[in-house]
From TrEMBL:
Species this chain originates from: Actinoalloteichus caeruleus DSM 43889
Taxonomy, superkingdom: Bacteria
Family: Belongs to the ABC transporter superfamily.
Region of interest called Disordered, as start-end residue ranges on this chain: 1-22
Protease keyword on record: no
Keyword terms: ATP-binding, Nucleotide-binding, Transport
Highest classification ranks of the organism: Bacteria, Bacillati, Actinomycetota, Actinomycetes, Pseudonocardiales
Keyword Nucleotide-binding in annotation: yes
SUPFAM superfamilies the record matches: P-loop containing nucleoside triphosphate hydrolases (SSF52540)
A Pfam family annotated for this UniProt entry: ABC_tran
GO molecular function: ATP binding
Protein name: ABC-2 type transport system ATP-binding protein
Domain ABC transporter: 29-260
Length: 336
């Protein structure tokens, strides 16, 4: 697990900036010591974030954890109180003009004119796209509306759009041209299950094309379904980050043993010094200090009938809960 201490240690090796336009980078986004203070409130405190190029990173955290503030600083929308930001290999805000045209974003809900149609709003956005030739604006807008499922509602006024339709139009604005990095803040907010599946499909397509995606969401199941990496924030601090599969494995590798005699299996394993307990599906065996072959051998020696043995890992919800509850308990236990 990459905890905050581990991240800080790794931060000593900085990634060199790339000067050639479109040059490959190891990290699509990187921060060091990122901090934001509003008055007497610390919104973000010393965040060292690494977003590997080509990844889909899910940014998780309870309300008020600093997710949106961190995203706004990544995009140059908010100036950090201290710390540094590197986007596509270049420092912000110094090189913002070089990299921001290659970044698409939907943050804190899209902002459009309520009296204009969805198409006309998107035409205004497209006219300001530095990477979009003027002769290609109308085709790009039509393609983007089709891509997010709004072609049939393109001439309706924005004020008449549902929340889900507004989210789709915001996503269309972010995808008017091919991007190297796409940042989506709560992209499934207001969407029905079909719309959520479409967002998942589009994120998969973006990753398949080599685009890096940052997704902020409170829907853990969606993050687990689409993301390759996660970063967990709480109370402005980064608790853990890294490859999703690796983090979940580190959260407690275990075996699930299917057997008709769960009590005998638990007794046999405890006698061998192996941690085991009954579960709704069979017997859950902790692999700390042991191995799958040893577990199976212990059960066979005790004449326990084994139908199936499979590797089990913690789910993202369990991992997230353990991290955030641990922070809450520590904070509550601190003195004044």
């Amino acid at each position: 697990m990459r905890t905050r201490d581990a991240v800080v240690a790794e931060g000593s090796a900085t990634t060199p900036s790339q000067d050639a336009p479109g040059a490959p980078v190891e990290y699509a986004a990187r921060t060091r010591g990122l901090r934001k203070v509003y008055g007497g409130t610390v919104a973000v405190d010393g965040v060292d974030l690494d977003v590997p190029a080509g990844s889909v990173l899910g940014m998780l955290g309870p309300n008020g954890s600093g997710k949106t503030t961190t995203i706004r600083m990544l995009l140059g929308l908010t100036t950090p109180t201290s710390g540094s930001v590197e986007l596509l290999g270049r420092p912000l805000p110094e090189r913002a003009g070089d990299v921001l045209p290659a970044v698409g974003a939907m943050v804190e809900g899209p902002g459009f004119y309520p009296f204009l149609s969805g198409r006309d709003n998107l035409l205004r956005f497209a006219a300001m796209e530095p990477l979009l030739p003027s002769g290609s604006v109308r085709v790009a807008v039509a393609d983007a509306l089709e891509r997010v499922g709004l072609a049939d509602a393109a001439r309706r006024r924005y004020r008449g759009y549902s929340l889900g339709m507004k989210q789709r139009l915001g996503l269309a604005a972010a995808l008017l041209v091919p991007r190297r990095l796409v940042v989506l803040d709560e992209p499934t907010n207001g969407l029905d299950p079909a719309g959520t599946r479409e967002i998942r499909r589009m994120i998969g397509e973006l990753r398949g094309s080599g685009t890096t995606v940052i997704v902020s969401s409170h829907l853990l199941a969606e993050i687990e379904a689409v993301c390759t990496h996660v970063a967990v924030l709480s109370r402005g601090s980064l608790l853990a980050q890294g490859d999703l599969a690796t983090l979940l494995e580190a959260g407690g590798p275990a075996l699930l043993v299917t057997t008709p005699d769960r009590d005998a299996a638990v007794t046999a394993l405890l006698a061998e010094g192996v941690s085991a307990r009954r579960s709704s599906e069979g017997v859950r065996v902790e692999l700390t200090g042991t191995s799958a072959p040893r577990v199976v051998a212990a059960l066979v020696r005790s004449d326990v009938e084994v139908h199936e043995v499979r590797r089990e890992r913690a789910g993202l919800e369990d991992f997230f809960t353990q991290l955030t509850e641990g922070v809450s308990a520590t904070t509550e236990g601190e003195g004044p």
